[in-house]
Design brief:
Helix content: 25-40%
CATH superfamily of the largest domain: Alpha/Beta hydrolase fold, catalytic domain
CATH class of the largest domain: Alpha Beta
Oligomer: single chain
Number of domains: 2
Strand order of the largest sheet: 10-11-13-12-14-15-18-19
Structural class: alpha/beta
CATH topology of the largest domain: Rossmann fold
Number of strands: 19
CATH architecture of the largest domain: 3-Layer(aba) Sandwich
Shape: elongated
Largest sheet: 8 strands, mixed
Length: about 375
């Protein structure tokens, strides 16, 4: 009832406390005296008025830090107003006139009984369960969170400067950054997670613009926007891990080559990478029978094979060629790849000392059972 009400009122919220732990775990593990709700402080009056309308009465009023309300049937609710910045960071008043400060990545969501519910992240739960004498119930909650991390990969939905992402796996000092390709989404990383997780890696996957949760955003998937987003994501992880590796597919590899040209990863894995976008666009011009001059005049051209050629995009690509790539790199390439020509692959691999595996009969898009099995075997060999 409470969650439905919050969503009907369009109030931003996250479940905290014991219920927040159970939501992360994915099932109710114990009885709860109350439900703790962190919420946008700009909606405080609306929320309290609505709760009182439903029969709740204020029993503890420690504003601006927290308010507890009770209902004779529905029990207790403990609400914590948060002042939320444009970056997603937040602060909550303490009882001594100061502030608690919370990072944007502390605010997550998890799947519980078929419903995706905003909640405090696993990292935040660990932090909030420190600095005071824990009750037995708090110790049990922490123990359950640790057991959950050991028994199944943790999945935390987070936002990195409004870029939707998922952090997979138990806490580790090793991470693979996963950059998907066109027509994909962050959840496609799950197969990769199963393999990388066996070697102790966490995996961070995110949606490129116009993909996954971002299909309705007025923010096109241009090379400029994608390079910007990849840099934002790397800034988020660079000081959190001792060992960062990269997995990128198709156009995700191309964006990575531009965004991360000055970064040396522990290891890079590229699947069907686009290595020369200028060459690819020129090929698409030939396939569409349009010259550079005509594209410049038209600015955009819709092709018969579903791609939109853009002069602005092409100009950026021409002025920002892929340079030297210093990270140890392993490439899986399909023999019949129609987007990256073999000589382009050979030139890049020789220049940058890459290790290349070519699947006989393979295509740019690995999707058949045979291709996926080949991909899985390759991943297991190069990750370990």
């Amino acid at each position: 009832m409470i969650l439905d009400m919050l969503e009907e009122l369009n109030i931003r919220y996250w479940v905290d406390g014991g219920w927040g732990v159970d939501i992360l775990i994915g099932e109710q593990t114990r009885e709860h005296r109350d439900v703790d709700i962190d919420f946008d402080a700009t909606s405080e009056t609306i929320l309290i008025d609505k709760l009182e309308e439903l029969g709740y009465q204020i029993t503890t009023d420690w504003r601006p830090a927290r308010v507890e309300l009770s209902h004779p049937i529905h029990g207790h609710i403990d609400i914590h107003p948060l002042i939320i910045s444009d970056s997603g960071d937040a602060k909550q008043a303490d009882l001594e006139g100061g502030w608690y400060h919370f990072k944007a990545e502390y605010f997550s969501e998890a799947l519980f009984e078929g419903r995706t519910i905003p909640c405090i992240s696993l990292e935040a739960q660990r932090i909030f369960h420190s600095g005071y004498e824990l009750r037995e119930v708090d110790k049990e909650d922490l123990k359950k969170l640790e057991e959950m991390g050991k028994s199944k990969p943790v999945q935390e939905k987070i936002r990195i400067n409004n870029i939707p992402a998922i952090l997979y796996g138990s806490a580790s000092d090793k991470l693979y950054l996963y950059v998907h390709g066109k027509y994909s989404r962050k959840e496609e990383a799950e197969h990769f997670v199963n393999i990388a997780g066996r070697s102790g890696y966490q995996v961070l996957s995110f949606d490129l613009s116009e993909h996954g949760e971002r299909t309705s955003e007025p923010y096109p998937c241009t090379v400029q926007n994608s390079v910007h987003d990849l840099k934002e994501v790397y800034s988020f992880i660079k000081n959190k891990y001792n060992n960062i590796s990269l997995y990128a597919c198709s156009i995700g590899a191309y964006f990575s080559l531009l965004a991360y040209r000055d970064i040396k990863f522990e290891k890079c894995l590229f699947l069907s990478p686009i290595l020369d976008m200028k060459r690819l666009i020129q090929n698409m011009m030939k396939w569409s029978n349009i010259s550079e001059e005509e594209l410049k005049e038209k600015e955009e051209h819709e092709t018969s094979f579903g791609e939109t050629l853009s002069w602005d995009y092409y100009e950026y690509v021409r002025n920002n060629p892929v340079g030297k790539w210093d990270s140890p790199t392993f490439i899986l390439y399909g023999e019949n790849d129609s987007l990256t020509e073999k000589y382009v692959l050979d030139s890049f691999a020789i220049q940058n000392g890459c290790t290349v595996d070519i699947m006989p009969g393979g295509e740019h898009y690995f999707h058949t059972e045979e291709q996926l099995n080949y991909l899985e075997n390759w991943l297991e060999n190069v990750i370990k």
